[in-house]
Structures are given as structure tokens and as C-alpha cells.
Design a protein that fits this description.
CATH class of the largest domain: Alpha Beta
Number of domains: 2
CATH topology of the largest domain: Rossmann fold
Strand content: 15-25%
Order of helices and strands: HHEHEHEEHEHEE
Largest sheet: 7 strands, mixed
Number of helices: 6
Radius of gyration: 20 Å
């Protein structure tokens, strides 16, 4: 994996902050109980605090390292020639967007986002552009402030559509379906769709089947994208648009 030159923030930064606060609180409670009543009374709080802090550490590993490794493999699996047009739904600060751009010396990657900081710390198009400059791919990207349920692109404009941990942020099932429909609409015949997300994978697969997509797969992304532990895994859904 190429060494990253940009800065990519933390996904949903309030989550590890809450884990950290709860973990420290439990440890403090455990220490008080240990001092006052002994180990037997304190053990539950101490172990719970350690577990929560470990979960926070795992979360930070995924957001700072693990997801990059997984997406390098997913992008390799697309076998891009280097001249395609690719769309990234919910591109944020560019973790996946710019990894795709490095593979497209003669192509272009379009990134769509609403730039909400609750989804990613410091989420702003200016930051993404600075990261693109740092990675040496600024001339290969275009950024758009747009809703993924109403994409500002023509039918069949892209050879590949990718999305990482973004579609689940749409709160209602109808909106998520609309995002999948839009992704399929802007794909060229024979184009590939790859979505990695922590929820709604079955819905995505059902929507893709209804839309006539082929080679639909749904598989776990592995431990590198366990957000705090195996109870919050990432699932990758992929499909091909019929030629």
C-alpha cells in the first residue's frame, strides 16, 4: 500500500470519544471500588473499562489504517485500466477517492458529499483538495456538493461507482434505495458497483437484484474493518451492470 501523504480524519469522531469517556469513567469507578471494598467488588468495572478502551483503540485502528488496507484490495479487484471515470459516493476527505485517483493516470474520479463533520472529522472540500495536492492527484479529481439520492450526472457516465461507509447515513430505507438506484443509473453497461457499509447490506443486495444487476455478492470485509469489534463489522456489496 502506498504511503499516505494526506490527512484523513476520523470517521464519526463522536464514537471513539464516547468510548474513551465511558472507558475512563468505568476504570475510575473500579479504582474507587477497589480502594473501598477490594478486588471482588471492583473487578466488573475494571474489566468493563478495559474492554471499552480496547474497543476505542480498535475503532481508531480501522479509521486510521484498516479501512485503507481493505480498500486497496477492493480497488485492485476492479482491475482498472487507468483511463476510466469513477464516482465515489460520500467521498469525505478522500480516503477512497484519492486511492482510486492514483490508479487513473488518464482517468478521473468524481467525489460527491454533503460535507457533514458528524460523519467525518474536519469534513470539508478544501481539506479534500489539499489531500489531493499532497497525494499528487489534484488534476484527476472533481468534487461535488450533492445528495447521493439525486446525483447531478448523466446516465451511464461512469465505469465504476464506489462508496465507503456513506449510504447508511441516509436515515430512511426509501432514501437508501434511491441512492442505490442513482448509483446504478450513472453506471455504464458493464460497469462495477462496490459498496462497503456497516448496515443495510441485505437491502442493498435486494435493491440491486430488483434493478437487474448481475454478479451480486455480499461478503464481510474482515477484521481490519471491525468498528470496535466483531459486533460492528463492515460488509462489502458488489455488482455488475448488464452490458
Amino acid at each position: 500500500m502506498a504511503r499516505r501523504q494526506g490527512t484523513y480524519g476520523v470517521d464519526a469522531p463522536y464514537i471513539p470519544a464516547v468510548y474513551g469517556a465511558v472507558g475512563i469513567g468505568l476504570l475510575a469507578c473500579g479504582i474507587v471500588l477497589l480502594t473501598a471494598y477490594g478486588l471482588a467488588s471492583a473487578l466488573g468495572a475494571l474489566l468493563s473499562g478495559i474492554l471499552v478502551l480496547v474497543s476505542a483503540g480498535l475503532y481508531l485502528y480501522v479509521t486510521r489504517r484498516g479501512k485503507f488496507v481493505v480498500w486497496e484490495n477492493l480497488l485492485d479487484g476492479l482491475a482498472l485500466r487507468g483511463d476510466e471515470h469513477v464516482l465515489d459516493l460520500g467521498c469525505g476527505r478522500g480516503a477512497v477517492l484519492l486511492a482510486a485517483a492514483r490508479r487513473l493516470p488518464e482517468g478521473r474520479v468524481h467525489g460527491v458529499d454533503l460535507w457533514r463533520s458528524q460523519d467525518q472529522s474536519g469534513n470539508d472540500p478544501a481539506v479534500t483538495r489539499r489531500n489531493a495536492q499532497a497525494e499528487g492527484v489534484a488534476d484527476r479529481i472533481e468534487l461535488h456538493t450533492a445528495d447521493m439520492t439525486r446525483l447531478p450526472f448523466e446516465d451511464g457516465q461512469f465505469e465504476a461507482v464506489i462508496s465507503s461507509l456513506a449510504i447508511h447515513n441516509i436515515s430512511d430505507a426509501a432514501g437508501r434505495t434511491a441512492a442505490i438506484e442513482e448509483a446504478v443509473r450513472v453506471l455504464r453497461p458493464g460497469g462495477r458497483l462496490v459498496v462497503a457499509d456497516i448496515r443495510n447490506a441485505r437491502q442493498y443486495g435486494a435493491d440491486l437484484q430488483r434493478l437487474g444487476m448481475r454478479d451480486i455478492t455480499r461478503r464481510g470485509a474482515g477484521a481490519r474493518m471491525w468498528w470496535s469489534g466483531p459486533w460492528m463489522p463492515t460488509t462489502v456489496v458488489s455488482a455488475t451492470k448488464p452490458s
